[in-house]
Amino acid sequence: MPTQALKTERPNRSEQLSLRQVELLQHELDEVRRAVLQEDIPQIARRQVGADNDAKQQLVSKLLRLRRQRSSVFDADLFGEPAWDMLLELYLADLRHVRHSVSGLCKLSRTPTTTAIRWLTKLESAGLLTREGDAHDARRLWVIMTQSGYSKIDNLLDRFQDLL
User: How far apart are CA 11 and CA 18, in angstroms?
Assistant: First the structure.
């Protein structure tokens, strides 16, 4: 019975990954490796799965939309709560397994950058979030909700759901 030679041809264009795709995959692998090496398991394990995750995502998305709709009716300065918006955005990002940079979160808070950074500092001092450097871009900092911050928002959302 003849043995088949191993396929050593180069993959065709549709099978090739772009350099950017390879870099993104490498970045994801680096994040998983970093989490495991630093025993950051609570950060990974706390994420919800299944229907509860979907329900929480929908609730937080609705809360954020309601807050933005409210600003279209009333003057936004009447209800300025950038810290709450940031916490909701970070919680939602955690459920979706994505991250926000400092600059991205500042934009989402819809406040001037200096105000948003002041609130980030207060939230960090309260132990609700942390900032960590990007391993691939020294100019960028990621904002990550702590386990304490996540648990508090999760608990509050459970109470909201009970009221609805």
Answer: 12
Residue 84 has, within 13 A of its CA and on its CB side, a CA count of 10
Q: Does residue 147 lie within any of the structural domains?
A: yes
Per-residue confidence band for 51, with pLDDT thresholds at 50, 70 and 90: low
Do 157 and 115 fall within a single domain? yes
Q: How many residues does the chain have?
A: 164
d(CA 80, CA 36): 39
- The pTM of this model reads 0.65
Q: Residue 164 corresponds to which tokens in the numbers above?
A: 């609805």
How many whole angstroms separate alpha carbon 80 and alpha carbon 26? 39
Q: Check whether residue 54 and residue 26 sit in a common domain.
A: no
Residue 7 domain flag: no
Q: 68: which 2 tokens?
A: 């933005």
d(CA 88, CA 63): 8
